[in-house]
Design brief:
The chain is mainly α and about 230 residues long. The two termini are about 30 Å apart.
């Protein structure tokens, strides 16, 4: 409540990045805020990072499996391949049965409709593979429930928010998309858009940290990340 009162005068939606940063800096100097830009400085030094490094620095929590690389619960290309074969085989068997068991005209119509199922499946997989992946996860029993999904989204976005705040990146916007997913967007620098120059190493480090923070927040709270 104190933080909301202190930041009530800041326009986080329509204000520009520079004025937002200046107002937050003033609140830090006044002692009203303590975590704004606390990661700026030596904490944002640039250095190469590997999965082994992340695993060692997080006491074994952030691993390739936890991030979804090669995990048994992850949907692999083999899963898509076997699902496509299963749909094609199932549609073929049902088509043959329709021709054999149903009246001639009805059986032929059903057979033609079933022939379109594998085509539709491949079309959906090509344009929106997430839909197919969600169905495969449900079949494998690895999909989240609605409450678990909401909890995961909240943790993921909270990780972005906290890391961006500590890295000194002003908020550009926050919205709920049509499918109910909340998304936060930061300005790429404290001055706003970066034009006419390259990103500095510190800015790249800040953006990299913020990009990774959502998945790390999922892992710390739930044991794995699903994005």
């Amino acid at each position: 409540q104190d933080i909301m009162s202190a930041t009530s005068s800041i326009d986080f939606e329509g204000g520009n990045a520079a004025s937002q940063s200046e107002q937050l800096d003033a609140l830090v100097e006044a002692g009203d805020l303590t975590m704004w830009k606390t990661a700026v400085g030596s904490s944002l030094r640039t250095f190469p990072v590997s999965l082994q490094f992340l695993e060692s620095r997080t006491n074994g929590k952030v691993t390739a499996d936890a991030l979804g690389f090669g995990s048994e619960d992850d949907v692999s290309m083999d899963d898509f391949k076997y699902a496509t074969l299963g749909v094609t085989l199932g549609a073929s068997v049902l088509g043959v049965l329709a021709l054999a068991l149903l009246p001639e005209n009805i059986g032929a119509t059903v057979c033609y409709l079933l022939a379109l199922v594998p085509i539709a499946f491949i079309g959906i997989g090509s344009t929106a593979p997430g839909i197919i992946a969600g169905g495969i996860k449900t079949a494998k029993g690895t999909a989240d429930t609605q409450d678990e999904r909401l909890d995961r989204i909240c943790r993921h976005e909270a990780g972005h928010f906290l890391c961006g705040y500590m890295c000194g990146l002003p908020i550009k916007g926050y919205e709920t998309t049509e499918n109910g997913v909340q998304c936060v967007e930061f300005h790429p620098s404290q001055e706003g858009p970066v034009t006419g120059r390259e990103f500095s190493p510190e800015e790249i480090a800040a953006l990299a940290c913020v990009a990774m923070s959502g998945s790390v927040a999922e892992i710390l709270g739930l044991g794995d990340a699903k994005g």
